[in-house]
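hey
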């Protein structure tokens, strides 16, 4: 066995080591929650009041945060808006723009996230407000949605936190839809 310590082999080894470190760092980078994984997909809109069918629009979502790739996964306003709109659409409540009779505003108060662990439980806290076309409040609800992602769901910690964020928002939207079912 020869010990090649020529400048070219040392440089090659350094390049390979740098590439490996860069790949590990990229794998650990935080990425934002995906709207399609936060959305509720149900086959039927059964159980909702008839007046809500194809009559609701998401007007505004606030309180979300952009994800810093060097920190932790977050949920941004645009992603939450898309997930809520897709959820409403999947149960037949989403109205066409310009013909909505009910408007939804959501304030994402925050995500309670762990800093480390093998299982990550995230709880989202959000205020949902539904207004009729005249601006009268017809539903106000503060909802806490929780979800736990374990090692089997995502072995990489940054991905496990992302999955827990997505599940917490999905749980929140599910509870909101349940509240809409009981609306008079």
């Amino acid at each position: 066995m020869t010990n090649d310590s020529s400048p070219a082999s040392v440089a090659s080894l350094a390049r390979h080591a740098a590439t490996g470190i860069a790949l590990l760092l990229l794998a650990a980078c935080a990425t934002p929650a995906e709207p399609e994984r936060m959305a509720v997909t149900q086959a039927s809109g059964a159980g909702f009041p008839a007046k809500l069918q194809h009559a609701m629009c998401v007007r505004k979502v606030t309180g979300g945060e952009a994800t810093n790739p060097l920190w932790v996964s977050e949920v941004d306003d645009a992603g939450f808006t898309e997930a809520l709109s897709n959820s409403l659409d999947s149960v037949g409540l989403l109205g066409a723009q310009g013909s909505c009779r009910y408007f939804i505003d959501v304030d994402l108060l925050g995500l309670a996230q762990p800093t480390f662990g093998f299982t990550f439980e995230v709880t989202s806290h959000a205020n949902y407000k539904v207004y009729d076309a005249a601006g009268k409040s017809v539903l106000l609800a503060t909802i806490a949605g929780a979800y736990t992602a374990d090692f089997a769901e995502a072995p990489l910690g940054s991905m496990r936190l992302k999955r827990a964020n997505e599940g917490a928002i999905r749980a929140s939207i599910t509870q909101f839809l349940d509240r809409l079912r009981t609306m008079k």
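The chain has a mean pLDDT of 86. The two ends are 82 Å apart (CA to CA).
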